Amino acid sequence: MKDARWWHTESDGRVLCTLCPRFCRIGDGQAGFCYIRKNIGGKLFSLGYGTSTGFAIDPIEKKPLNHFLPGSEILSFGTAGCNLGCRFCQNWSISKAKLDEAQSVNASPEDVVKLALKHKAPSIAFTYNDPVIWGEFVVDISRLAREQGLKNVMVTAGYITPEARPEVFRYIDAANVDLKAFTERFYRRLTFSHLDPVLDTLKWLKRETDLWFEITNLMIPGENDDPDETKRLASWVVENLGDSVPLHFTAFHPDFKLTDRAPTPAATLKRAREIAQSAGVKFCYVGNVHDREGQTTYCPACHRVLIRRSWHEIFENHLEGNRCPCGESIPGYFSLDPNSPQSPRPRLIWPLD
Ligand code: SF4
Questions:
Q1: Closest CA relative to residue 338, chosen from 173, 214, 228
Q2: Does position 333 have pLDDT exceeding 70, yes or no?
């Protein structure tokens, strides 16, 4: 438990949490919507600080990140709770759990960084539940990790206030942001949150930071897979973030409260990829299905294969530093040493979990 940041006391004595756009007003002894920020005696505390619901060494492609240190391993962990209420949550056993229900273990920022170094993972991912709600822990770990030469990755829904963003993302090197749909109706009904703050975070990442980010859209049959919605989403990305932000369309499987839907057909993802490409997105991928073509990075200039993947494994990598052999510069961070002309060697990856 740690003193929380990003809050103040209201005139009625309750605490107002200003970390995420939910702006919970929290009475003494109560916790916010996310379960892990609690008012104790008129002060807000972060209960998730210094805890983990488990660690894994994942391939970085699992986050998913396809243009950031491809083929590398990443120490991944999360805490408990979440600031969204997604009815289709694919990680609900921890996102909907309170800390004591999620069988958390204690882990200081020093412990987390030591674990990454011990396993020779070049980066750490804050993931599994949304790291925004344990922003204080993210800041302390990521600062320490950077001092040790490690990279930091956030996997987030981007539901965070303008006030908290600069601090929480300060030492982050890369992020994958869930853009869950492109309608307010979906966000309100199925996530109990709102679309605009997420779009605002994406524009802020582009405008105010130099961290690398990619976007994931989990496609749920009948909810957010309408071709017109996909076209509007992709066009917004190109217009507001540029044509070089990788966009991942991933398959849903029935889970938590949304068990009356079928898994996303591979054909839906393939169609979404084609729509996004037509809208101008240069790097578009599909995930959670077998689709070699949809998981391959192609050079937008000469169209040759640059990185061939299958699920989270890399089979070919023809990049020379950040360049295609034809000379085209490919956006992203493809080598730990930004000055190195060498691309990482392709290798098979076996996740530990
Ligand atoms: S971070 Fe948690 S407590 Fe704070 S506003 Fe969001 S849901 Fe509420």
A1: 173
A2: yes
